[in-house]
Recover the amino acids of this structure.
């Protein structure tokens, strides 16, 4: 039993945990963060600061860097959860099956117990949401606009004022300049500008990517070096990761970081919350006490904790963006050259605004392809491996990968619940059912057809489309929706859990609608707002 009573306990070190904690710590509150906190202590020490091409030419350890010390990046047969993670990012999903068990035939969930959570592998895409989107989510537009800029001031965001701005950065001030386009993406963008009116008539708009990747030195972090290694390492910390914030908080006297701690449940007793957990190294059960509890462990883990506390197997709703990705060839780049100085991050965004009202917008992120290695994509080509490898030599400079996300609304066929299972270390297992209606599936296909049609006008020849299992987008929310009516497993607008006295939720559990645009920036902004409202309550003024 831990007898110390903390002002606040924050559960989780991901995006929402980091930024709710920073707001609380900056206000002078005594904050304890409970986290498992798996780290990579191997690959970060063997990956040099050279760029991708230099590593491929000169590094004797490149087999370990790119394929893994046990060649774990080479997966044959059925694609498993985390198959696209590079060796240096594999720790992000470490322990998931053991400590966060899920059963589902319709949903492949990604969760993290890492130091920095899923944010340790974030691609950096930073979108603001429109006023109609925020209202549909249950969020206050004026509050979010202020919070977006608080987060921008903390992490640094680069972008451009262009046709995409209304969909991703119109609410942001003091943007850094956008990342430099490589030759492949520059040709695509020039084609867009030449054919803009025809493409816009399809309801499609393009702009430079808005990224939490700094192009100027910022708060002790180095500007993007165009090493093309952002999916392998964090040298220079040019792409924001939440553990960067946690590292700074640990230096503060009013912040405690408690690792190896898996929170399972809580009990409210009077004005105190007892937080129940166990040490993953010793299996010792531990209880921490606080005046207020902030759950920021991701919507699936937060659902587990709240359901256990209530002793309930009730179904909770779930939202997840439908996701597909296309490969396409830039006809002018076939058999061309690839510059050494480039980034592996998204460089262009496309937005399909079908109704012209910045609501229910489908989103595309365009990536050049090289550093994730050609063997991953060769597996998906309808040719023999030898033929595909030879063909890829000519296609690789021209290859674009286009990730497509669609907006999502709740329905009775999208839910989760917790069942007891004594064979699991936690004593239970999360069941998820997620099925799109025929109408939703048909609408997504229509949208993808329009997007595919626009690619020809961009000089791109679309090839195969892959539609991963639901869950692959890793954009989850909506398990405990905001509500104006008192109900079980609902949230007030300030993030407080209905039926509780001192339990708040700072992740995306309350969002009632899920835009297609990446949710991460809005998650951080909402977490800041939840923490700000806690501070304003009696006793924390």
């Amino acid at each position: 039993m831990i007898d110390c009573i903390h002002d606040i306990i924050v559960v989780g070190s991901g995006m929402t945990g980091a930024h709710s904690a920073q707001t609380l710590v900056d206000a002078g509150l005594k904050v304890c963060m409970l986290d498992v906190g798996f780290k990579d202590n191997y690959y970060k020490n063997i990956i040099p600061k050279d760029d991708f091409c230099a590593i491929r030419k000169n590094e004797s350890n490149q087999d370990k860097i790119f394929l893994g010390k046990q060649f774990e990046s080479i997966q044959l047969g059925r694609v498993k959860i985390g198959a696209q993670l590079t060796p240096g990012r594999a720790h992000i999903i470490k322990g998931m099956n053991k400590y966060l068990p899920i059963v589902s035939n319709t949903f492949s969930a990604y969760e993290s117990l890492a130091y920095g959570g899923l944010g340790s592998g974030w691609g950096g895409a930073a979108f603001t949401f429109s006023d109609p989107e925020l209202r549909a989510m249950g969020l206050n537009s004026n509050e979010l606009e202020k919070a977006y800029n608080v987060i921008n001031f903390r992490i640094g965001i680069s972008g451009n004022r262009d046709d995409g701005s209304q969909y991703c950065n119109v609410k942001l001030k003091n943007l850094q300049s956008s990342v430099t386009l490589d030759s492949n993406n520059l040709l695509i963008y020039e084609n867009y500008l030449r054919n803009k009116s025809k493409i816009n008539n399809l309801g499609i708009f393009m702009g430079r990517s808005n990224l939490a990747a700094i192009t100027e030195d910022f708060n002790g972090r180095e500007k993007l070096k165009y090493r093309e290694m952002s999916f392998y390492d964090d040298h220079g910390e040019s792409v924001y990761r939440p553990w960067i914030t946690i590292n700074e908080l640990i230096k503060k006297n009013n912040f405690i970081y408690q690792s190896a701690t898996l929170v399972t449940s809580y009990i409210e007793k009077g004005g105190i919350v007892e937080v129940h957990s166990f040490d993953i190294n010793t299996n010792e059960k531990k209880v921490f006490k606080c005046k207020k509890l902030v759950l920021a462990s991701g919507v699936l883990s937060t659902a587990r904790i709240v359901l256990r506390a209530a002793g309930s197997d009730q179904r909770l709703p779930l939202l997840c963006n439908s996701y597909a990705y296309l490969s396409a060839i830039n006809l002018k780049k076939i058999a061309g050259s690839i510059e050494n100085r480039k980034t592996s991050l998204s460089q262009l965004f496309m937005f399909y605004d079908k109704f012209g009202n910045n609501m229910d917008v489908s989103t595309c992120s365009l990536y050049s392809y090289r550093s994730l290695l050609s063997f991953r994509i060769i597996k998906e080509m309808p040719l023999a491996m030898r033929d595909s490898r030879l063909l890829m030599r000519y296609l690789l400079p021209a290859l674009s990968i286009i990730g497509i996300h669609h907006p999502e609304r709740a329905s009775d066929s999208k839910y989760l619940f917790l069942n007891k299972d004594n064979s699991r270390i936690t004593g239970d297992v999360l069941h998820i059912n997620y099925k799109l209606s025929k109408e939703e599936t048909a609408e997504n296909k229509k949208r993808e057809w329009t997007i595919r049609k626009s690619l020809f006008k961009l000089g791109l020849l679309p090839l195969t489309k892959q539609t991963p299992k639901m869950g692959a987008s890793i954009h989850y929310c909506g398990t405990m929706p905001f509500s104006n009516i008192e109900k079980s497993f609902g949230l007030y607008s300030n993030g407080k859990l209905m039926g509780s006295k001192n339990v708040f939720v700072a992740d995306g559990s309350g969002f009632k609608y899920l835009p297609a645009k990446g949710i991460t920036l809005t998650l951080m902004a909402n977490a800041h707002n939840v923490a700000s409202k806690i501070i304003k309550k009696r006793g924390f003024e």
About this structure: The mean pLDDT is 94. The CA atoms of residues 84 and 355 lie 34 Å apart. The radius of gyration is 23 Å. The longest strand covers residues 285-295.
